[in-house]
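Let us practice reading a record.
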Amino acid sequence: MSRVAKTPQPPYYAVIFSSQRTEVDGGYGKMADKMVELASQQEGFLGVENAHDEGLSITVSYWESLDAIKKWKEHSAHQVAQDRGKSEWYKKFALRVCRVERAQFYEM
């Protein structure tokens, strides 16, 4: 998915996941697509944005509440993906949760 997410007026939350991949594919792309599909079905999900470059990926997901984020973190299929990420797919990663206080959108 490579478009700007249409989110509501703040406040809401952003989960920023930055990662550097290993050389192992092992179904990573398929799992990533499945996670976006499942996340989009979760209560409180607002949207997602992805950016990929040589060696660095950033995914930002948007959520209505911290509770919605917690429920997604605890989703059984997401936990399987998290475990595989730690054991197979990521050299390193960072996860940040932020409260969005202000947002502006421009379209040219």
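A brief commentary: DSSP finds three helices and four strands in the chain.
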